[in-house]
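Re: export button greyed out
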Amino acid sequence: MPLHTVSFLVENRPGVLFKVSNLFRRRGYNITSLTVGPVEGSPLSRMTVVVDAESRVLNQIVEQLDKMVDVVKVKRLDPIRTLSRELLLIKLKTSDPMARIEAVNTVNAYHGLILDVEPDILIAEVTGPTDEIDEFLRKIGPIGIEEMSRTGAAAIERGNLKLA
Amino acid sequence: MPEMTGAEAYVKALEKEGVEYIFGITGAAIIPICDELLKSKMRYVGGVHEQGSTHMADGYARVSGRPGVVQVTSGPGATNIVTGLATAQLDSSPIVALTGQVPLSMVGTDAFQEVDIIGITASVTKHNIQVMEAAEIPHAIKSAFYISSTGRKGAVLVDIPKDTQTNRAEMVFPDSVEFRGYHPSAEPNPQEIHWAATLLSKARRPVIIAGGGAVASGATAELLELAEMLQAPVAHSLMGKGAIPSNHPLSLGLCGMHGRVEANYVVPEADVLLVVGARFSDRTTGALSGFAPNARIIHIDVDRSEIDKNVDSITRIVGDAKLAIRGIHEKIAQQRTTGPRDEALVKRIAELRAQTSALSTDSPLSGPAVIKAIRRAMPPDSLVVTDVGQHQMWAAQHYDVRGPGEFFTSGGLGTMGWGTPAAIGAKAARPDLPVLNISGDGSFAMTENNLALAVDEGFPITVVILNNGVLGMVAQWQRLFYDRRYSTIKRPRHPDFAALAETYGATGVKAESTKDIEKAIRRSIKDKQTTVIDVPIDPEENVYPMIPPGMGLKDILLGGA
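Workaround output, generated via the alternate export path:
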């Protein structure tokens, strides 16, 4: 099933994240990723959820979210007109000097940053669209991933298109 | 701004909403409020179990159209209302549940009688709110009434920690509340109405299905006018009973799993199907492939999320059903272009109706015969509620109504035990009308202790128990689909229900004929005396017609063999 990005504004109040995630659980919607953060200068938070759903379910996700009192505005983002990024922090095992060179080259190829270096360990940050992060992980995998942390997608539409 | 305690503000806020009755049970976490209620004219009806109190609030709400109020303590008091909340929520009945909670400082510590009722009820309420300080109480209560009674109505819960009840604050009582994320719009889109009118006016075989939304929006008069203009037969879901008078020539009756033959044969014939305030529940549609295979569907619903949830529609009108139907009617009347009709469709209704009545069993105390006897004994202006099971389906099929507001049942959740307390709530809403619960032995046993309230609180009701000594609907499935392998359907020993009624101070009657039933009902109504009428019925009797689970509307079992 295709991935879709839905962004929505919610009241920044205790319990709202629970109600949103409870809705997804209760109706069996598959969340691929979920990000939350407050909106500057507003009492609202913005949530972005990437879901794996066919069109009837996607439509239901939008409508069921919209029905919640704490959800102010919901929008299914048009994939063609949306910029989406996620952040990956990754810790690599690089005791082998060749592996270390390979790791640095791969991180650079994906415009990542080396954040920390220790004798056996290298920590990098990579930002990009989800599929690019996936691709990076496929390439870096053979080197040996010690630990990783992905944020899920933050997304915003191009031009004048706005959620609020 | 007056300064007062949270409990004082609570009472004032409820009074401002015009609350007549508070149903509930007290407890430690709600004592400050109960103390304050002593000063109020609102009537507190103390129950025997919180589930029953919630059903009373629900019955009151369905009959009065105004939110019913249930007030309970924290912990087990709160968890006991969950079934009642879900029942009300699934049938879009406006109830406001007010729960005491342990003091805020103890929330999250697993304190005595603490449960996370916000978490527990999130899936079975339209909205819920936990009060975080005393000053929030007026706004929270106003919000609960507003949200529960607007748009698609439903259950709203407010959880009130004990310290917020006793703390003092400057209180503001808003006359209205607004939410950035809640805009129940009722005004249908004219373009959508135009499309619907065009489709309907060109239809050869238009058919209407009315759901609970048609009744809730008060659209039934408009619906009937439209049906008559289009000569469109009208079927109804369980919740839509009353949308059209049962004896109207265009009435198809109940549609779906235990729907009438007329409905289940005619609905799939539609070329245009107008669905008004119904949500295409599996019990109404049967297998979707056989539901209305050739129909272009027009769906009217006040809840946008119901559109295309289960069945795709070609035209959808989001908004108040009454306004939508009136709009369609006006548009078609203006256009004056109804296409050629398939006259045979309406003629078939009468034929099918005659066929079905020929099938009905002659046994003197068959389910349908008991229901018809009840109808004969009940005056035209009266209210009937049901419990859940075989008796409920017989009632839905055979209890004729003249219009909306006469028949109430737990449709979506199918809550056994709903009937008796809901009847009490109904009586509280309309003390001038006789109220009767059509029940079964299994359902009645679940909440019979509420009879004490019917007697003591002066809410005389009549209960007719169709008593077959088994959980009949499950027995029927096991008979029909499990090769008569009966399992788990035996009831524990019943008390003698008539004698039980007497111990509560009600009248108990053992009926042996439909004459006995009618006589006892008439007497109960005349004497305003809560009466339980125990009617033995055959445990082998099935509810027919029936569509086997997973089959289409036309795969109908007629029984009668």
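The interface with chain B takes residues 10-11, 15, 18-19, 22, 26, 44, 56, 59-60, 63-64, 66-73 of chain A (CB under 8 Å). The button fix ships in the next patch.
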